[in-house]
Amino acid sequence: MKGKMKKSVLFMLVLVMVLIITACSKDGGTATKDDDTIKIMYVNSGTLGEMGIGDIIMEALNDFAKETGAQVNVFECHADASLFAPTMRDVSSTGEYDLIVTAFYNMREAVMEAAERYPNQKIILFDSEIDFSGGKYPNVRSVMAKQNEPGFLAGVLAALLTESDAELANEEKVVGFVGAAENTAIQDFLIGYIDGVNYVNSEINVLYSFVGNWTDTARAKELGLTQFRQGADVVFAVCGSAGLGVAEAARETNNYNIGVDYDFALAIKDTNPRTAEHIVTSAVKDFYNITMNELESFADGSIEWGAHTIYDYARGGSTLVRNEYFDKIVPEDVLKRYEEITEELAAGKIEVGTAIGATQEEIEQFKAEARPFSR
Amino acid sequence: MSDLLSMVFTADFLGSVIRMSTPILFVALAALVGRKADVLCIAYEGIMLFAAFGGVVGSAYTGTVTGGLLLGILLGMFLIGIFAYFVLYLHTRPLLIGLALNILGSAGTVFGLYILTGSKANSTRLGSLTFPEVHIPLIKDIPVLGTVLSGHNVLTYVAFLSIIIVQIFIYRTGLGLRIRSVGESPEAASSLGIDVNKTKFIALLISGVLASMGGIFLSMAYLPYFTRDMTAGRGFIGIAAESLGGGKPLLTGIWILIFGAADAVGNLAQSFRLPSQFAQMAPYLTTLIGLVLISVVRERKKVNR
Amino acid sequence: MKIKFGQDRVLTSQEIGRRFSILRTALALLLAMGIAILLIFLVSNNPFRDINSLLLGPLSSSNRISQMVNKWIPLLFTGTAVCLFFSVGQINLAAEGAFFAGAFTSTLVAIIGGIPPGLHFILCALAGGVAGAIVCGLPGIMYTKFNVLTVVSSLMINYVVLYLGLFIITNVVRDPAAGYEASYRFQNTARLAELIPGTNVHSGLIIAVLIVVFGYLLLHKSNFGLQMRTIGANSSFARYSGMPVARVIVLSQLLGGFIAGLGGTTEVLGLYNRFGYTGLTNHGWDGIMLAVLARNNPKYIPLAALFLAYLRTSADVLNLTSNVPSEVINIIQAIIISFIAAERFLAGWEYRTIVRNTEKAMSLKEGVANE
Q1: What does each C-alpha distance from B278 to B263, C164, C168, C257, C293 come to in angstroms?
Q2: CA of B104 to nearest chain C CA: how many angstroms apart?
Q3: Relative to the CA of A246, which of C112, C160, C203, C260 has its CA 20 to 30 Å away?
Q4: C283, exposed or middle or buried, with CB in 10 Å at 0-12, 13-18, 19+?
Q5: C152, C334, C343: residue with CB nearest B240
Q6: Residue C56: inside a domain
């Protein structure tokens, strides 16, 4: 038995040595750059699988690769800030990639630094804004979709529903919001949501709470349950995959949920149709199509560098998903009023508050506009 | 404030305390069995994740809840088996292998999820099953008490029943006695002819089953899905709760309820505009204060004796 | 017991043990690599390139080397800090919280303008260090005053510190222009300069090295260190021999906490221009890993930390250049670390060698006696 152990260890050793030798003799790392195929590196500052914008961009990139034969690599920083700048530098310095795609405000300074150092490297930064004044960063492009606008629409719909005679709406004028953490993007959603609710009726209570992370689905469910018990009949969940917990809470207490980023109802309707029935809609920033657009214009050379583009609601950058559940749940009169408001928003008649660029006091002021809970 | 208090003393609130306590109770009992054998295992996060994932996969592919339960427990035991082997036979420091297994638990389940479903986020594409809820006849019709005690998931009852089972197991069975003796004095136990490592191994496996139940509760009862890193620190809180209970199953259970109440108040207080960070801090802060209070009481008892 | 007979020398069991510990580490590393390589073969579409990045990736460009050095720096701090904790027998896991506390507390100082350079960093370092000392000192005090298990209290304190920090950053120093949850920019007077121009390696490296040396001297060349180690080895013996056990424990936790907090300060002021952490950073857990690998001796921390930094940089390079999912890379890391730490790996072999040598020595002795 022991002799056998020793032999197997020796065998492993030999195997390892052989592997190492073959590995080293093959000249690694010098992938020849084929000029015809587009090589794209996607630097994700977070982690894939949070069911957020990062994943949507990944999907679009993968589909683009399938369509055009482009080669896509991905680097995940797992929210480790010490990787942002070095990774951008590292990728740019190889010169191997035709394009770097990345996203979010926390990558902005890393992008600016790399762009300055490697002026030939093309970079698209999604969901963030770069100041291009004075012709700076001619090799970068920033693209944004607003989240306060879909937040606003979610607020409008929630407020209209809680006041309506929709099947599961209750008497009390209370709606809720469950966010992942008090970060700027989520506050932006919240401020839009509160604006939307107040646009319909400022007498409606808005409850809001935060999970503290993107992964604790059980806590998200518990926060949802708490809000439903306090009389909310619609709760908007902005906490990625953890939002599934809020949907479960809506099913258990027989209320409504609004999802975010993805069409939540579509994602679960095959395996969990009973819960899908409770998801009225999902507020999405349409990064799938935005990414596709940008990549296509990159491929055909029509892309505009050194510029910032905003895909707002009017340009189709964001929307509330209209699916079978939406049509089934939303009553006629609510739909009519909702559509009126969407038209006003598209026509630029409504200015929605935002957390982007706002100081903490301003954010608190926005949030204070929500009517607090009282019995 | 009075609004908040009026919300606290409701049946729904107490019901949610019981529900939130369930997974932590399983882990705390697991930690308790581990501690009786004098092994500090911090790998419960990883074990719970493996079990939660196994439960979802097992139930989805066999189409039965039992299949999920078995695969979940099997995966959880596999992970704690690795832990036990490294600690007991390869003399690895438990802290280190525990850390490594927590990494493995998180990465392994996400990778498995990715292989099976193509998603790194959740198992919505698998269509797994959940354990049923139990409505206890008679009790469910009692006002207030019925809402608090009845209508929970079957695993919640298992969890609270486990307090008694673990109590009996540790103090009334031969194996329990052996586990305590190898934990308290391995030399003496060894001289009595008890195989110390084997006994510790068995204790850890039992501990693994309990922790696995906590993971399975998350993905097959609390929620009908596995989502990435869904344990969110519960494995650690369980260890802390066990410490609050000072190694006594019943006391541990009581502390977990107190703890769960603090957590639930935190959740509720957010609706009253308590800054979210303080709400999220609540359970940890309560534990810290609890730890000090308990020790003060314990010391005082010692002095009085 | 050392026996020498001319050229015919028999190794003592200590010598065999030492040789085996080197062999063991090397074999464990190779075995872990073997498993890692098998895993890569399973999932990679270009396994040879990927194995190459795993083994040599960190050395493949100056950018990556400096990345590795920058990963090494914070590990030196937390590794040394945890050595101090563990040496007195306290399983204090609060280095994680201390690192975070050091980072956000020094941020509060680093954004204040009008302080001359040099002094500004020293003030930041003091603030960060003191914050870290409080975070790690608390479990120590709770243990000595109330007999609360350090491992549990420190675990809880980490989370309390995290949420407290996030609250402060969000509500006190959040920069609206950043667009995300981050503080105002640090004043240039507070930031650490680049050590080697053009490499991004910051001068925190010097502080880190000094800290390791300090940790080693304190633990192994000072009276206080002797007390610490005595308490760690046997606290009741230490108490009977009249050592101020409680004081030494609390002081060592405070010191270690100061070091971990200083690590956080150095990290943010060396690498970033604003505070942008949204969660705990894992440096404290890494420190625990390192202290265990280094057997609580700061002397070995640089080597252990270099190993971990190399491994992490390998992982990044692999993540960057391959299609291997980052989860597999994490699994590989976990496997490598487990094997390295397996003390009794190859124990049977070692045991038999010792027995054989002892028998040999005995027979030689007998031979001498018979003559």
Answers
A1: 11, 7, 11, 24, 36
A2: 5
A3: C160
A4: buried
A5: C152
A6: no
C156 contact residues in B (CB cutoff 8 A): 240, 284-285, 287-288, 291
What is the rounded CA–CA span in Å between residue C121 and residue C98?
Answer: 18
Question: For chain B, which residues lie within 8 Å of any Cβ of chain A, measuring from their own Cβ?
Answer: 3, 6-7, 10, 12, 16, 19-20, 23, 110, 113-114, 119-122, 124-128, 218, 222-225, 227-230, 232, 264, 267-268, 270-273, 276-277, 279-280
CATH number of residue B46's parent domain: 1.10.3470
Letter for the amino acid at A97? Y
Q: Per-residue pLDDT for chain A (375 aa), expressed as one digit of tens each?
A: 444 445 545 554 554 454 444 444 433 333 444 567 889 999 998 888 778 889 899 999 999 999 998 999 899 888 888 889 889 988 998 888 999 999 998 899 999 999 999 999 999 999 888 989 888 899 999 998 888 999 999 999 999 999 988 888 888 899 999 999 888 889 999 999 999 999 999 899 999 999 988 889 999 999 999 999 989 999 999 998 899 999 999 999 999 999 998 899 998 988 899 999 999 999 998 899 999 989 999 998 899 999 999 988 888 888 899 999 999 999 999 999 999 999 999 998 999 988 888 888 888 888 888 877 765
C neighbours by CB contacts (3+ pairs under 8 Å): A, B
Chain C residues whose CB is inside 8 A of the B278 CB are: 163, 167
Q: In what order do the strands lie in the sheet with A318-320?
A: A205-210, A174-179, A232-238, A256-260, A279-285, A318-320
Amino acid code (one letter) for A360 = Q
Q: Which candidate in C85, C156, C283, C345 is best for mutational testing of the B interface (most B CBs within 10 A)? A: C156
Among 1.10.10.60, 3.40.50.2300, 3.20.20.70, 3.50.30.30, what is the CATH number of A2-145? Answer: 3.40.50.2300
Residue B245, φ and ψ in degrees, nearest 5 = -75, -5
**Best interface-test mutation with C: which of B47, B103, B114 has the largest number of C CBs within 10 A?**
B103
Tokens (6 digits) for B30? 């697991």
What is the largest distance, in Å, between two alpha-carbon atoms of chain A? Answer: 83
What ipTM was predicted for this assembly? 0.92
Q: How many contacts does A have with B, using Cβ atoms within 8 A?
A: 115
